[in-house]
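> @MW can you paste both from yesterday?
MW: sure, first one:
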Amino acid sequence: MSINHIRPWRHIERRKSRQIHVGNVPVGGDAPIAVQTMTNTPTTDVAATVAQVQAAAEAGADIVRVSVPDEASSRALKEIVRESPVPIVADIHFHYKRGIEAAEAGAACLRINPGNIGDEKRVAEVIRAAKYHNCSIRIGVNAGSLEKHLLDKYGEPCPEAMVESGLDHIRILQDHDFHEFKISVKASDVFMSAAAYQQLAEATDAPIHLGITEAGGFVSGTIKSAIGLGQLLWMGIGDTLRVSLSADPVEEVKVGFEILKSLGLRHRGVNIISCPSCARQGFDVIKTVEALEKRLEHVKTPMSLSIIGCVVNGPGEALMTDVGFTGGGAGSGMVYLAGKASHKMSNAQMVDHIVEEVEKKAAQLDAEAAAAE
């Protein structure tokens, strides 16, 4: 049940958008914000690509994008689609024929880049293939590959140029009676991306795919994405997202979910609330949290766990979580269940015990949810 009615400062009013489908995943409207990532294996290496898709899906990815740069990749895509547990988006640049081939191979969505896909005649051919094979399309505008006439008009990449590019291609799709599309206006510059997305959100009711492109490595890219995507999501903008990191695609999925979880927009797995640790800690908080993050990756049930090193904030945080542990003295701490002090546990046994308590609580929550259906 939503708690926003008693805590209105947590409420996010999502932008009203049309709903489309990427395979069996609804995007837009009142659908949950979908989390995406992209494979980085050679598409022609079917086994490696499928393994990466499956790992991303296990981590929670709703949709996975695969690059289709050549004919060999188009042929491999058919098998990848067949073995994938989630809808596959074909990433198309430069060669419009790859878009046609990807639709024929069973891609659920085609990502086309207005800056390099070609003229309207070529786009029309891709649209025909998408219609025939029941594909959706993402118009993927990038600041780094804008059309020459827009760069000449505006002098440099800017929000106005990105939005104009996107709207021009929306017009092409609509002129060909194609409406199963979403759109993105990505830049590596957080300010440019945010401004472009805000303008775009006012100019169209199409579902919006969020991203800060080429955000960087794991740490820097996570921070840039959290700032850029976080503020847009807080404003209610965004129907699906990808966190672009120079890192394992699974990490992109994890970061995407953490951003959504922090805003109360998606709930999946255990949300661990932990202190940064200090001289007051009654156990090694950092190592404990690292161990628990790994041990609890298999839990998909939305729930909360507090791991606090001492009694300054521990009991208060535990009041708000499903399971909690607060450090005390003499090598032990207090276990909290459903916000109430339950029993003491030694530091040496706490990780195994907390895992058991979380699994038990998850099973209880799952049973309650099943009974309510």
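MW: second:
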Amino acid sequence: MATSIEVFRFSSNEEAYDFLIKQICTGKYYIVQAFPTNPSILHYYRFTLHRKSPKATWKIVQSASLDENNVSRSVQHHVWKLNSSVISAAKKLGTAFPDCHTIVVEVVKVGSGNFWITDTILHERNSKWSQYHSLHQKRSLRPFLPATDLCTKKTLLAFLNTYPEVIIKPCVGQQGRGIVKISITGDLTFEVHEKQNRKVLDDFEQLFSYVWNHYLSKKDYIVQQRIFLIEIDEKPCDVRVITQIDEGSWIMTGQVVKVAAKDYFVSNRASKLLTFENALSAQANEISFERCAKWIEKVCKKSSKRLFKNNGKLSIIGFDIGVDKDGMVWVIEGNYAPSLSMFYMFDNNEIHKQISYYIKKHKKGD
């Protein structure tokens, strides 16, 4: 579905089995499924279903064709047939996995005939795809979320046709591992930038082949518009914000600006840490510190409430918040087990002490 199909032919079942064991089914357990025999035309669709809380009903929040040719009207024409089936599948899986609130159902349509559910993928609370839909359900938070989709050949092309730079990142991952920036260069080639490494590819087919082999074939990824963040010494930076629950209310207990290391486009490897006020004062264009600080606190508290309602069992969240060069605030992502080491010995250790106080207070309350 996501890339071109390779066909291998064998003279016997034993030869085919030997190839599968040695070349394909390595390091993982696999299942075998029945599939239509000699299908004339296959159309692939993907449905994302989400529920706001463990007791809420499942809703289809996204449906799309995975075919390279645009057949979205076909999805709309048949969606009424599929709604009840994919919702029933989500209900069954949601009962078996009560902590999961986002499920992707993949369906294949055989010619003009039957539909087959070929796969279901559970996106639990630490999945960025699940988190995006949890926040997106709150209408007032939508303006603060970068455009986001599951990364396929079709969606990657659509995003690159819309934005000059995009980010792809694994649905489940930490500390910036696997995050990649893809840019369209002046001569219409594509640059892939991961950590300090850059690679230029001549056209989209080469780009997607590279992305598939190095990233998408190993994990599920999302694709996002890249936000052009404020910079310090030509290095992008974002704001790590800590929120914690205290007596039923979410409060902001920590904030620090992380400046990316040289040649990095994400701040997971930081060259230095600053207060938010100092970071804004270093900007050439005037951005109101009071206005941005107010919006960051408001958005983080509201996001914390939404994620808590969806997931529960949360007492601390570490948000990566972007501020673009126009002063607009963006929720890049939230981390449910944030590293607090960056606050240790920063600002006379006062922030770390405050965060630790509420951690201990919450544990005593338990």
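> thanks! The chain is about 30% helix and 30% strand.
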